[in-house]
Each structure stands twice: as C-alpha cells, then as structure tokens.
Amino acid sequence: MMGAMMQTIRLLIVCLFAATALGTAGERPLNGLDPAREISHYAHRAWTKRDGLPQNTVEAIAQTHDGYLWFGTVEGLVRFDGTSFRVFSVRNTPQLGMNYISALSVTRDSSLYVGTYAGALLRMRDGNFRRVAPLKGADHMMVRRMVEDAKGNLWVATTNGLYVVRGDSVVRVYTVADGLPLNVVISVCEAADGRIFVATVAGIWVMNGDCFEPWMRGLTSKTALPFDYTFLRQESLESIPTDLLCDRDGSLWIATRSMGLFRYHGGALTSYRTVDDGPRDAAIQRLYRDQRGTIWIGTVGYGLWRYAGGRFSSYTSEDGLSADEVMSMFEDREGNLWVGVSSAGVNRFTNSTFTTFRAGSSVVENMIWSLGEGPGGKIYASSAAGSIFVLDKSRFIPVPALSAVHNGIIAAYHQDRQGTFWLAGSDGLVRVRDGKPVRIAPYAVSALAGDRYGRLWVAGAKGIGIIADDAIVPVVLGTMKAQHDVRQILFDRRGRVYLVTRTSGLGWFTLPPPGGGKIVVDPASVQWSTLDNGSAAPWVIAATIDTMGTVWITTMGSGLKVFRGDSTRTLTPADGLPEEVMYTGLDDRAGWMWFSSNSGVHRVRTSDLYELLKNAVRHVRFESFGISDGMYSDECNGGHQAGGLRSADGRLWFPTTAGVVMVDTHRMPLNAVPPAVVIERVLVDNVEGVARSGAEYPPGNGELEFHFMGMSYGAPERVRYRYLLEGFNRQWIDAGDRHDAFYTNIPPGTYRFRVQAVNGSGTWNLDGAAVTFTLRPHFYQTSWFILLVAAGIIGAVLLGMYIYKRYRDREVIASQLESELARAQVQILEMQLQPHFLFNTLNSIMVLIRQEPDMASRMVARLSEFLRLTLDSAGMQEVTLRRELEFLEKYLHIERIRFGDRLQIEQHVDPGALDALVPNLLLQPIVENAIRHGVSRKRGPAMIAISAERHNGTVTLHVRDNGVGLPTRTGGGLKEGIGIRNTRQRLQHLYGKEFSFALDSPPEGGVDVGLTFPFHSGST
To answer: What is the DSSP string of 31-64?
Structure first.
C-alpha cells in the first residue's frame, strides 16, 4: 500500500510539473510600458505641425499590419513611419470627401477603416481607398468610434445610428427603432461574454437578442432631458457617459463628462470620484487598456492619467505633455503608447534605457555637475548653483544642512569604512558623521580616494594628504609642482598609486605601507607620463581604472587615453570613438565601458576595446544613447572626479544639464519585436515601377532604384538595413541607416530585391521585404544575336589572320632584318592566338553566352580591339614603352574577364622611361607566360607586377608574379618555351650584346623576368 501511495504522489508531481510547463510555454513575454515606473520616467517625445503633421489635433490613431501608424487629424489622414509623414487629403484622395478624420480602426483582414466628421466611412486595403456604402444620412452625421467584435463585424458608432459593417458593405443599422433612446451613439464596446454595450446621452444600453435595452442610467430625472426608461441596473452615473472600455477581466470602465471614472465589475459599480490621487470630477473623453492591463485615461484639461497597481498617476503639460486635452490613445505592437491631443500633435511614451531624475523646475537647479553615493545607498548631487541634493524616490530634494556648510560645486564624494561621509569641492572638505556636517578644510579639495589600508587620500590646492584624526596629514612629494594639479587619485591591485592631473599628465608610484606620522615619497620613485608620447600633455577631464588595471582617461578634445603598464595609447574617431571630448568613463563590471559626453552616453564592449589595443581589430563600434532613450537632455556634465557614478547596486549615474540620468545595466529594455519592413518605391530607368512582385520592365539601361523603410517606433533613428539583389549581388550589402539602394548597368534578367532591418536592440526582421521583377533585353542583348556577332567576329579574325600571314610572307623577302622581325612577329601572333590564348578566349565566350551574355559581349569587343592593335603595329621593330603598355592593357582586359577579381595587376613605371623605345610586342608574351604557368595554377588572389626604370642610359623592365615559381625550385629542369626563346632572339638581334635577360624565383615565390637594354628616346 505504501508503494501504491508513493506511485500516486509521483504521478501527481509529474502532472503538476507538466501543467506548469504548459502554462509557461503558452505565455508570451509582454512588451508595453512598465507599470512599475513613473510616467515621468518613460522616454517621451512629441510631434507637431512643425515636424510634418498637417494639423495639431489628433483625434484617432491606428496601426496597419504593414507597420505604419495612422493619425486622424482635422486636416487629413496621416501615415507615419517613425521619421516622416505622408498626408492623405481630398486633394490626393477625393474618396475622403472631407479632411476631418474622426475615427480609425484596423480589422483582422488588414483593412484600415477611416471615419470622417461628415459621416463618410472608407476602407483602405492594399493601398486603395473605397467608400463603404450605403450610409444613411452620411451628410449629416459624424463617425465617433469603431470597434471590431470577435466575429469580425465592425461596429461603427455615429450620430445617426449604430452601424455593423463587413468588408465594403453595411449589414445592419441600429436606431431608435431597435431600442436605442436616440440615434446619437457616443461609444461602443464588446464585453468578454460577447455582449455589445453602447453609450448614449441617456446612459448605457446593452444588446439583447436583436435589439437594445436600457442597462444603466446616465443622467437623473432631475435633468431637462425627457428620458424615462426602466434600467436593468439601479445605479446611476449622474452624468453623460463619454467612452466605454470592455476589459478582459469582465470589467466595464465608464468615462463620464462630469463625474470622473467608473468601473462596473462583479455586479458592483465603483466610482473613483473620492480617490485622492485620481482624476476625481475631471471630464474624461477617452479610455484605453494596454497589453500589460494598465488603464489609460484621457481627460479634458487635466492631461493623461494612468491606473495601474491599484493607484492613479498623471502626466500633464507641466510634466512635458504637449497639451492637456487628450483626444486619442493607442499602443503600437512594440508597446509604445501614442497620445493624440488637441492643438498640440501626438505624444509617444516608451520604456526608456535611462531614467531622468529632476532636482527642481529651474534650469540652474537641474544643471547637475557631480554625483556621489552616501550612507544607506543614497545618491547625492551637486548643482551649478552650489546646492546639494539627495534622491528621494523619484526626485532630488535639497539638503539645506549640507549646502549651508559647503557653498560650491562638489568635486568628489567618499564613504569610508567607518561609515563617515566625506564631500570635497571648491569650498573645502566636509565630513558628515551621524548626520552632522562639519567643514574640515577651508581650501579647495578636488579628489578623495580610499586605499587598501583604509586610509583616505585627498588632493587639492595644498597638495596631497591623508586624513588622520579629522586632520589632513601631508604626503611629501618633494618640490614636484604637479601635485597641486591633481584632480583624481586611483589605486590598482598591484599597489600602485596614480595621480591624475589636469594638464601635467599621469604620475604613479608604489603605495606606501601604513606607518606613523606623515608619508614621504621619494620624488625619484615617481614616474611620469605626459599621456601624449612626450609632447604637451592633454587637458584631462577624468579617469577610471578597470578590473584589469587599465586606466581610461577622458580628455577635452584629445581622444581617449588608455594607460597600460607604462605606455599610453590614444583612441580617436578613427578607431570608432564617437567624439574626442568625453567626460567620464565607467566600467559596469558586466563587460561594458560607458562614457558620457556632450551628445549623450556611449557604451562599448570592454573586450572589443582590448581587441583594439592588441591591434586584432582596426575599429570598434560604440552604441549611443540620447533623448529618445529617456534623457531629458543628451548634454552631460563633467570635469570632476564625481562626473559619473557606479552605485553599489550596479546602476550607473551621470549628471546632465537637465537633471541626473540613471541606467540599470541589468534591466535594460529589450525590444524583441522586429521592425516591419516595406519597399515603398521602385524606379526603373528613372520611371516609377511597381513595389509588388511580378512586374516586367521594357528594355532600358538597367538603372534601378529602391526605397524602403523599417519601422521601429521606440528608436526609429537606430534602425539599420542590409539589402541584396538576388541574381546580381553575391552577398548582403550593409546600408547602415540609409533607406535606399541604387544599381546601374544591370543586364536583362529576372531578379529579386530583398531588404532586411534590425532595431536598436539588435532584433532582425530576417523575412524583411522582397520584390521580384524582370528586365527584358534589347534585341542586341539576346543570346541569338550575341552568337551571330561572335561567329562573324571569329570569321573576320580568321580571315584577317590569313591575309596578314600572306602579306608578311611577301615582306620577308625584302630584307633579312625585316624577315627576322616579321618571323618574330608572326611567331608572336601565332603564340597569342594559337592555341591557348585564342582558344581559351573563344571557349570563355561560349560559356559566357549561356550564363552572362552581357559579359560575353564585352569579351568579344575586347578581343576585336586586341587583334586590331596587333595588326596596326605590324612592321614596327620598336615602339615607345607608353604604346607597349597600352597594347598590354588591351590584352589584360580580356584576361580580367576570364579571371575576375582574382587577377590583380600592379604597375610601377618611371615616368622618364615612358618615351623609351622597346621591342614591339615585348611584354604581352611575357605576361601571358606568367598567367599561363603561374596565375592559372595558383589558388586564391594572383598578382602580376610590371615595373620599368630608366638609369645610366639603360631601361630595365621586370615582370613579377606570385605563382608557383620556376620548375627548378621543385627539382625539375627549366625548359624555355617559344615565348622566352623568341624574346631572347629578338633582343640579341636588336641590341647585340648590350642587353640582359634573366629569370629568377625570389624567396617569397613566383617568377621574376628581368630585361635590360640601351635607352633610346622615341619622343619627337
């Protein structure tokens, strides 16, 4: 029996774990605004008419499935992609009928429904607007609200009845004849149980069967309105309901015109009029529930309110809202909240990386210069006015007792092992013990630091000292003047003391052990670095030391100085540094270094910096944060030891010109929603194309232009792109933040353009967007035409070869010298064309005709030019080196088509040698020999270098390759081919013994062919 019981228990445990796993697997991590944060701690931004809105009253907001946001304004419908606005008005969209957009809704079938003030209802699908018909009395009514029910019906509340719409048609209209008190319907919503509630001036009606019946009274009988109904509920709102929100938990939230907010749940109606922190009797006109369950309340004159965690909070124009009359609210799919207001545009709230804490309402109060951590983990701040503040929940509050003792900016803070709190600045050194501040030193103190022995070091106008019995005991460093310029003292794990000065560089010495009396340091033991390779020291702002003992020093315009061991390395924008002026560097102990600056806060992986210091990489990537990340101002402050703070809990704090910003590196928001990507425009040969797949375009120049957009609304400026033209590109092209791609000379064919986008959190949309299209060829780009032309050219080449050979045979008889030259030239021509060069070229042409006809056409053209130049030079014994190089370039054009990017050519030619006379057709057979025996047998990139130098009445030519080398280096015998023998005989015939011809395999590999002969000028 005991065994059976244990088996049952084990079965129950297995079932419990299985149920838990299934429940967890079904959950999706929520995006959306964190309800635990204050509204003022979200990143907030507003867009108005100045930014591109046609008008500043935004009455409706929606998001279509392609990612665009849509705003309904008094002057038209607006599409927003995060950076720019596109306006649809009666000018470009006459279907609207009027510009006043009063309601928007997106349904599950990807339709956008647009309601106007004049009663028109439009459906936008696939970019096309169509009117929904018929609407009775549309000229005399206004569309107020729209909501889609669980069955796919769209309920449209208007001033002339309640409409039910499917697709482009109205399927039912509910009016007074169907039980409504009047035809004016203010709002509508569907409850969790499927019931439809509507709000009217007489109260709330509920659908029962195929008609509506009174559910809850709005105004009492004391009003002048002649409504006398028997309501299902006995409660009364005592006001006109202005909006309804059916919550997922079964609650019905009710906004009213004069009685604030109500909630009906579990058979009971709750009024929030008496809640002290609530909107009380405010006129409420909009309600919205986000995916976290937070209820957002839009009021008339009292700004935006939030109900979360059982309490209310607000955000008004005094906090930064662009206006206090809220007209619309919407949460996009990334969880950002959009709030449209009257006469002041649209506001966006998003979870921020940084939280800004304010220290008052004035500019001077919020001009924070330094930060420190005191007893109990309290964060202290010092302002430009010399006031000292302490963080109290969400704001910094003044500490008058400290400000009374120290009247100036605090430069350094320190809490010693005994719990005593020390503050140092322009007005001296202050000790705080048991909450009582006492000034210890009346002169300026710039630095505080505790060493491994628990001693507190100070630096200031009177040099360096150590605190002992509340007195400063000097540290004797001889007559070194720099000790009065020390702004920071650092200690590493090896026992070094670093003295960071403002303008004298960096000094260091070994930490003296504890002992009685003052400390004397031998000046000869103090080492020094100017931090700039021996030149004038830079203006140092601050320094920090990481766990590896590296000192990171920020400067005023001299980059980031990195001191390791006994040497300094300077990092500049060429290394990836965002700017050369940075205030404070902090090591977050989680693998990142953070730096504050005049244009925000930047972070970089510490490992990347060390790779850069080891020269393993040439560039590092910094990530930048600013206003869109929750900073009220991206202009940081600094110049002191306390220009930044890593508190005991790991959070980082930076002073700015508009308060203190904090980032919790362990809880940074991650946007896991990939950006939506659309291809907005396609241009082919500067003519507007179709941004959908399947289009065919007539023959043209192959000029393509693509415009695309990735939509990530939390930080649209951080969206990055890459694109690929399949059929042309072999790999993705990084476009950075550029929204377009351009191509020229694209040959005919079928292509697929793809674009992908990544948001600021590194989340890629790998599906992206794509468009497939076809470029039709010109008649001369077709395969049959190219084959016909190739056949004609080959026939002409063979005929020319025959005629030329007959002509050269007759010229041989004229003289022995001409005969020798002719024989050499004929041999060269035969060598060039028979068999390897001509046959290889023709074979390549035949392959390319099938695969890349445009490239085949270019190869035929190059072959024709090469043969023409060969025939034109017939009969010339010598030509200038300049002409010889031009001939060689024609030949190399053909070889580059064969070998592609693998063949690289370098030329190093003395300008004084260009007019030298050289044997005609000298270089081509040597270069061809290098390609045939060296390049074609080598894997990977192949290099051929051609050099010419004039010296002491001679000309020296070298042709080098990095191929497999001479056979003699691998044990074989060297056999001279026709090219080498022919070249050697021609040189001997022209110059007798006054030439040299050498072949060598250098130690680094390959072959070096060297030629030297007398210099004769061919200039005229």
So the answer is: -S--TTS-GGGSEEEEE-GGGT-SSS-EEEEEE-
In tens, the pLDDT along 572-599 reads: 999 999 999 999 999 999 999 999 999 9
In the chain the first and final C-alpha atoms are separated, in Å, by 119
Residues 93-100, mean pLDDT to the nearest whole number: 94
Question: How buried is 552 (Cβ within 10 angstroms: 0-12 exposed, 13-18 middle, 19+ buried)?
Answer: buried
d(CA 743, CA 749): 14
> What are the C-alpha distances in Å from 915 to residues 335, 675, 912, 950, 1019?
73, 62, 7, 10, 6
State residue 584 phi and psi, 5-degree precision: -135, 140
Q: Which residues contact 27 (CB under 8 A, 6 or more apart)?
A: none
Residue 560's pLDDT is what? 95
Q: For residue 920, give the nearest of 980, 872, 862, 960 by alpha carbon.
A: 872
- What token pair was written down for 473? 């005991």
Which string of DSSP letters, residue by residue, matches 808-851? HHHHHTT-HHHHHHHHHHHHHHHHHHSSHHHHHHHHHHHHHHHH
* DSSP secondary structure code for residue 11 in this structure: H
The packing angle between helices 978-991 and 816-833, to 10°, is: 160
Per residue in 167-182, pLDDT (tens digit) is 999 999 999 999 999 9
Q: In sequence order, which ranges of 169-241 are alpha helices (DSSP H)? A: none
| Residue 57 · residue 327 · CB < 8 Å | yes
Question: What's the gap between Cα 39 and its chain centre?
Answer: 26
| pTM of the predicted structure, to 2 decimals | 0.73
The dihedral region occupied by 600, where left means phi > 0, alpha psi between -120 and 50, and beta the remainder, is: left
d(CA 903, CA 901): 5
The two tokens of residue 680 are 């907005």
* Residue at token pair 């079964």: 250
Contacts of 290 (CB under 8 A, 6+ apart): 32, 33, 296, 331, 335, 337
Nearest 5°: the CA angle 432, 467, 400 is 20
Q: For residue 29, what are the β-bridge partners? A: none
pLDDT confidence of 972, banded at 50, 70, 90? very low
Question: Which residue has 């070094």 as its token pair?
Answer: 496
What pLDDT does residue 534 have?
56
